[in-house]
Write a structure and sequence with these properties.
CATH superfamily of the largest domain: Glutaredoxin
CATH class of the largest domain: Alpha Beta
CATH topology of the largest domain: Glutaredoxin
Bound molecules: FE2/S2 (inorganic) cluster
Largest sheet: 4 strands, mixed
Oligomer: single chain
Strand order of the largest sheet: 2-1-3-4
Length: about 160
């Protein structure tokens, strides 16, 4: 697991200071750290704890409660598979299983080369085109199991892999 560099520590302190006047700065601080680093490791939570006087346990609770925060680095491409009801009844489970099989990782995990993360999502508001998959914000409507390997190939070829 990557460690926070000295520069990273300085950046986290600066983020905390930016919200010093807020009464409830925690969510804003964590959002900025997530955006900046792509994840919020324990070490970053310890720095925030020192700076704003909220216990690491409480911060950890917030980070693990909200799915848009991550404890681990995410891949370059984040494959979000909607498992909401409309998508589920149209075969979303088989689709996420196929991504897992092809990439060799479970939902929530990242491939060893750092390229892909699979996330299981709740309804993303695209029920009319269920089952829906998003990759870095691009929506793949009416996804099928057969299209999964094509989509993975498309991203691998963009990387020359
Ligand atoms: S249930 Fe998947 S987009 Fe709504």
């Amino acid at each position: 697991m990557a460690q926070i560099s000295e520069n990273g520590r300085v950046e986290i302190c600066a983020i905390c200071e930016k919200y010093a006047d807020e009464t409830t700065p925690l969510m804003m601080i964590l959002s900025d750290i997530q955006k900046k680093f792509g994840y919020i490791p324990l070490e970053a939570q310890e720095i925030v704890s020192e700076k704003i006087g909220i216990s690491v346990a409480e911060i950890y609770g917030v980070v693990t409660f909200y799915s848009f925060f991550s404890l681990k680095p995410k891949g370059k491409y984040i494959i979000g598979c909607c498992l909401g009801t409309a998508c589920y009844v149209k075969g979303a489970q088989q689709i996420i299983d196929k991504f897992s099989e092809i990439l060799g990782i479970a939902p929530g995990e990242t491939t060893a080369d750092g390229m892909f993360t699979i996330d299981a999502l709740r309804c993303i508001g695209a029920c009319g085109i269920a089952p829906a998959v998003t990759i870095n914000g691009k929506v793949y409507p009416k996804m099928t199991v057969d299209k999964v390997s094509e989509v993975v190939k498309e991203y691998r070829s963009m990387e020359g892999a």
